[in-house]
Automatic annotation (TrEMBL):
Origin superkingdom: Bacteria
Protein's name according to its UniProt entry: N-acetyltransferase
Domain N-acetyltransferase: 2-144
Statement: the UniProt record of this protein carries the keyword Transferase: yes
Entry keyword set: Acyltransferase, Transferase
Amino acid sequence: MITIDALAQADRAAWQRLFEGYNAFYEHPMPAEFYDQAWAQFQAGERMHALGAKLDGKLVGIVHFLVHANTTAADVCYLQDLFTDPDARGQGVARALIEAVKQWAAGQGCSRVYWHTKEDNHTARRLYDEVAENRGFIQYVIPL
């Protein structure tokens, strides 16, 4: 059975291992202090939020999200990072995490939840096409 909950201090090492896996997948290595900063933000629960998914008491999935203003409706929830341990994939972990963010955002009065993924992330996109609507937007980025 999958359980979803806020990350506790005892989850710190497992969370970092999963977040490192996420960053490796997207070829985005981060310095150690960024993990420390993110963890502190998640524990504060004010600007950024995180949930963890456990199977048999083991942390096997994480999701990070935040709320921001929106010019055309109520605030929106951006699901920034989602990662499932490769050994736990196909068991509904990512689906459960997305649903938990959806429920959380609805409780905050958000008008929608949205996220990005790489075009060639076919495995994730199969799930995303089932649980969300692809509105066809293209993302542009200016690194600073």
